[in-house]
Amino acid sequence: MIGGLAASVLGFFIRWDELAPLISTGGWKDIFSILMWHVFVGFTFSVISQMGFFAYLTVHQFGASMFRSFWNTVQFVIIAFVLFDLIYFRFQAFADKGESLLSYMGLAILLLAVGLIIAFYKAKQSNKSVFISALFFMVVVTVLEWLPVLQANETKWLYIMLFTLLPCNAFQLLALPKYNQRTSQKSGA
């Protein structure tokens, strides 16, 4: 539901230039079909988010058992590498479009800022040791889920997918303890 809602609202605002003429001419059927299309696209993005979350849970267990006390350091290095790649390689690949390096840095900084906020709440929710893992999920896994649109570099879809993935990923990360608690209560009853 989060993905469908986020993508439909974002799609409406981001694609306003395409929808405004339909609104002025009364093309409500077209507007409704475009809105429903965005809802289903959001559902698809939320499924991608769920797959990324389950993949992360698996990778996290392997990483924690392989690297033990160094796992947080490894995650931090990967976060830094992914953020660097998000800026540098995208800039190199799409430099001919005339965009400045700052525009590419903006998305990475935004992603990092949201990741830091969610990681802070996650650490506050459980314990401080999960901060780096939560940040890793919010930055690295979100970028991996976002890759198809990053490669296409279509500005409208960059924003629609990113701002659909972020609330989906944040919800999963912050809601996991509640689901674990419910499961343990049901199995203990």
Automatic annotation (TrEMBL):
Kindly state a single biological-process term from the GO annotations of this entry. Answer: positive regulation of sporulation resulting in formation of a cellular spore
Cite the entry's keywords alphabetically.
Answer: Membrane, Transmembrane, Transmembrane helix
What lineage is this protein's organism placed in?
Bacteria, Bacillati, Bacillota, Bacilli, Bacillales
Native organism is Pseudobacillus wudalianchiensis
InterPro entries per the record? KinB-signalling_activ
The answer to keyword Transmembrane applying to this record is yes
| UniProt protein name | KinB-signaling pathway activation protein
- One Pfam family here: KbaA
Q: Where are the transmembrane segments?
A: 35-57, 69-89, 101-121, 130-151, 157-176
Q: Which SMART domains match?
A: KbaA (SM01251)
